[in-house]
Every structure is written in structure tokens, then in C-alpha cells.
Amino acid sequence: MRHFLDFEKPVAELEAKIEELRRMTDPGELNIAQEVSQLSDKAERQLRNLYGKLTPWQKTQVARHPERPKAKDMIAGLITEFTPLAGDRAFAEDAAIIAGPGRFQGEPVMVIAIEKGSDLDSRLKHNFGSPRPEGYRKARRMIELAGRFGLPILSFVDTSGAYPGIDAEARGQAEAIARGIDACLAAPVPFIATIIGEGGSGGAIAIAAADVVLMYEHAIYSVISPEGCAAILWEDRAMAPQAAEAMKVTAQDLKRLGIIDRIVPEPLGGAHRAPDAAVAQLGEAIATALAPLKTMAPEALRAKRREKFLAMGQSAVV
Amino acid sequence: MNWLTEFVRPRVRTLLGRKEAPDNLWHQCPQCQQMIFHRELEAARKVCPHCGHHMRATAQERLTWTFDDASFTRIDLPKVPADPLKFQDKKRYSDRLSDSRKKTGMDDAVLVAHGSVGGHKAVVMAMDFRFMGGSMGAAMGEALVSAARLAVLQRAALIVYTASGGARMQEGAISLMQMPRTTIAVQMVREAGLPYIVILTDPTAGGVTASFAMLGDIQIAEPNALIGFAGARVIEETIREKLPEGFQRAEYLLEHGMIDMVTPRGDLTATLGRLLGLLHVPAAEPLAA
Ligand SMILES: [Zn+2]
């Protein structure tokens, strides 16, 4: 059973009807086949219509869709010989971040990914994609490894935020994130970050201060969750849709603001409807972004990356 | 034309005299509720003489207390676009900005100055919690980048007093991008071989803690300052547990190895001067008469 979002109700009803017709009757019957085809056309039109003008809050729902492809799907679809490495060498292994070397289109790369999990067991295992300091320290270790061995870095970001817990604070969540950003900016190798679902605040930027930041068409990226922003500024979590609107969390707005570099198109109706196609699209976008960086000297890469981030917020764009 | 003349118009602000407050002014300590005579509180740098509670200080006070003879040169900070997202919650961001400007007389939540600290060259950035909770937007990023460039140019140490609730939500992802931006500022100072010292004051949280505030070569905190990444309420909602006594306080961070020392405000200037000397920071030029 497909999981439908509230605003997808009309499409859900049409698709249920199509399914019913297909099951109930002899599919060879001409007028039934015709009706199915008409309904299918209608469903597609509706989907196109809906997804062509999603509100920031609707995009938030799509970005959090339980069936949306996760970091693991990106790795499975894009990376061969992936060899996950574990641990921060100080305290623990954090499964919220999956990282290690592998090959992208035949060439060795370093992968750093935040995994949310896709069912109850894996969600628990990956702590719902909320890393602890150990996760960020492992990521930093991988960035440094990549630098030493000349591996381009591909990061995949999908998190509602770094884990807010007593243990995480006690072990220096803030410092771990700060050092993560520091390491990203110092990396002497090409670095492509992709916001695949949710780019939640400091927990995201810790592995996303990259040469090129890609973002899926319906992903969101923000300084605080819409609910969190609504709770603080409106003193009412129910104002999350307004907060999502006001904070400019969509790929389209962030591209305009110069915060991200490129938008990766999703299949009609969102990445969750055709995960393989979505992953393939991202593969193409990464290859395109990576090609010109491969020939750049480490110093030039770093200088250009710095220049890009130093300019952010300096001039009015909106 | 160097960067200094291009971007930083020095504005000499030597503050030797202080405006007099009426003699009969009293303050109440928020910690022990005791009454403190105004002049006594000023002399003690806003530390309660009864219980030792460190009250919050303004950016201007930080600069005055830090520089030798309370003498420093403030720099004008480059302007940033105001309200880039045209943000409005219950109130317009532009109105919040103008309210804070009226209240504090500052452009944003930060001041930058240079001068002599314990006889050594130093650039000091001080954040001010009164201005929208010391939140970090593009102006904060601009301030730290300017301070770092000035420190590199002058071969001075960079000293930062933090006081912030975190990112400025009204600037959306632009405020988030100040985390890498301020980190670059820290890298510039580090690459120049100059020390970067952070003094964490109450409170320091969120994206500020998770970027430049935790990247100091030396990390000092004021007693009992609240320092953390996530807010107490968010943590309690997530784990559904009461937080331990003293959680996220300066002493807690010291115990967990996150900072180098907890230093009472009265000892801070001497500590800074000593550290700058030990770390080979060049001597400051004698003050012009
Ligand atoms: Zn007191």
C-alpha cells in the first residue's frame, strides 16, 4: 500500500478506483480499458498539477515521506564497492551516519551520508537520522582520510537535525558540528553535498559546506524545523506552514538566494513514486558537478569554496 | 588601498569617562534577590558582591572591561542587506530590528574594536544578548569576518565574547550559512598563526555554539554560564526526562572536557593578558595621548 499525503487525497482516490476497476473486471473488456486509461490520464494530470505548485509546507511533507528514497538507496544505486567504516576512535560508532570509500562511476570517492532508516527497526538503529557527536567526528575522520588519499567527497544529507540529548550535549555536540564544518571547508578535494530529504540546521551543514551543494526538487533545507520556528516565533506549532513559507526552505527559494547551487529534478509526484529514477537523476547531477572540480588544484578548490561561503548574506538577492 | 581603508573606517572611541548614574540607584540581584548599590555593582563589573552571580553584560561593557585603560578603537562594520527574506511572524523582522536598534543604540548584536589587552595587540568582538537575543544573522558573520581580517592585518590576537540564543531564524538559511562563514574567519586567524580566544558568556547556544564559539584555541567560560547546542526544552521533549542539576553550565562543560577554564569576570583581563603574552602576541603600540 502506497502511503499518501493529505494533499494527495484526490490522486489517491483516483488511483484506488483504477486499481479497483483493474481487479474487478476482465481487463480485456474494451470500455473498462478505456475508462482505466482515462482515469490514469486524469490522475497524472492531477499529480502534475499538485506537484507543480507545492507549498513549502507540502514540500516539507514530501521531503519527510516515509517511502522517499533514503541515503542507503543513494549509496546502493550510485556507489559500487562501498566499504562502510565505523567509529570516531574516541567513544562510539554512530549508525546515524554511514560513511566510507566506494566507487562512483568507477572512480574512488568518499561517501558520508545521514541515514534515517525506512522501517521501525532501521529507524531505531539509525536514530531516525539524528547523529550524535560521534557521528560528526566519524564524518570528520572520513573527510580527513579523503583529503589524504585524494578521494572526492560525496555527502548525502537527510536529517531533521543533530540529536538533542543529554549524552550528546555532554560529549560536545556543538564542538563536533563546528569541527565538522571546519573540516568540510579545509578539505583539499572536490566536495559535492546533496540535500536528499531534510537538511536540518547545524546537523546538516556539518557535512554540507561543500564546493557544490545539490538539492532535490522537493527537499527542504532550513535553519530550524518549521515546527520549531513556529513554536518560538509564533508560540504555536500549528503555525508551521507559515513558518515554512517565511523561512524560504525550498530548493527553488534557496537556489535564488545562492545558498544551494543546483536543483535535481524528481520524477512526477516526488522521488517516492519512482525511487530508481530519482537516484539515477542524482547520479547524473553529481557527475556533472564533479567533472570540472576534478582538475582543480587543492588550494584553488579551497579558495573557491571559501569565496562562495564568504559571499553568503553579503548582498541582497531576493 | 588596503583592506583596512577600504572596508574598515576606524572610528576612535576612547572611553575614559563614564556617564554618571544617579547616586540613589539600586539593583536587585536576580540570583540572591539582595539589593546592590549601583556604583558598587559597576565597580564589580556586574558581579553580585553578595553571591557572586555574574549578570549579563552589554557589548560596550565587555570592550570597556577588556582593553587596557578602557581605551579602544571601534570599527564600523560593513552593512548587510536588512531583512533579505522580508520575514514576518507575529511581528515584522524589520520592526524587530528597529526596536532593538532603538533599545541598544547598536546596528546589530555585535561590536568590534581593536587596541591593547595586557599590553598586547588584540581585536575583540563582543556580542550583545539584548539585541534580538544575540542571534546570528549576516551582520554577525560580517562582523567576525571583519574582525578576523583586522586581526590578521594587525598581527593581533582575536578575542570573542559570545552571548547568543543561536541562529536568527528571520534570516532563514542565510543565518545557517553564517556557520561556515564564521568558521572561515576562524581559519584565517589560525592560518596566520595568531591565537583565537573565546570567552563563553551566559547564554551561548545553537548555531553560534556549533560554529565559531567552539573553535577557539583557548576556550574560557564565565561562571555558571549556560552553554549548549540544543535548548533545554527541546531536550526534555525529546528524551522525556528531567535534566540533571547544572546541565549545560560552564562548570559542567569544564568537567566534560569541553572548555579550558571557568574564569570569574574579575580575573578575566589578567588571564587574557597573560595568555596573549604566553602565545607570543606582539606588543601593542603605546596609546596616543
Ligand atoms: Zn546575588
Topology (elements, then pairings):
The complex is a heterodimer of chains A (318) and B (289).
Chain A lengths: L8 H16 L5 H23 L3 H8 L7 H8 E2 L16 E8 L2 E8 L5 H6 L7 H17 L3 E7 L6 H5 L2 H14 L4 E10 L1 H4 L6 E5 L3 E3 L3 H9 L5 H8 L3 H6 L5 E3 L10 H20 L3 H13 L8
Parallel strand pairs in A: 3-4, 4-5, 5-6, 5-7, 6-8
Antiparallel strand pairs in A: 1-2, 2-3
Helix pairs in contact in A: 1-2, 3-11, 4-13, 6-8, 10-11
Chain B lengths: L2 H5 L2 E5 L11 E3 L6 E3 H6 L15 H8 L4 E5 L17 H12 L5 E8 L2 E8 L10 H17 L2 E8 L7 H5 L1 H14 L4 E9 L1 H4 L8 E4 L10 H8 L10 H6 L5 E2 L2 H14 L11
Parallel strand pairs in B: 6-7, 7-8, 8-9, 9-10
Antiparallel strand pairs in B: 1-4, 2-3, 4-5, 5-6
Helix pairs in contact in B: 5-7
The structure holds zinc ion.
Zinc ion (ZN) binds next to loops of chain B.
- Per DSSP E runs of 2 or more residues, the count of β-strands of chain B stands at 10
- How much helix is in the residues of chain A? 40-55%
The biggest chain-chain interface is: A-B, 56 and 59 residues
Q: How would a textbook summarize the main sheet of chain B?
A: 8 strands, mixed
* Percentage of residues in strands of chain A: 5-15%
Large-scale geometry of chain B: globular
Q: Remind me, CATH topology of the largest domain in chain A?
A: 2-enoyl-CoA Hydratase, Chain A, domain 1
Order of helices and strands of chain B: HEEEHHEHEEHEHHEHEHHEH
Please summarize the sheet with the most strands of chain A: 8 strands, mixed
CATH superfamily of chain B: 2-enoyl-CoA Hydratase, Chain A, domain 1
Shape of chain A: globular
Number of helices of chain B: 11
Number of domains of chain B: 1
Q: Structural class of the helix and strand makeup of chain B?
A: alpha/beta
Which ranges of chain B are low-confidence, i.e. pLDDT below 50, for 5 or more consecutive residues?
Answer: 1-18
What small molecules does this complex bind?
A: zinc ion
Integer count of domains of chain A: 2
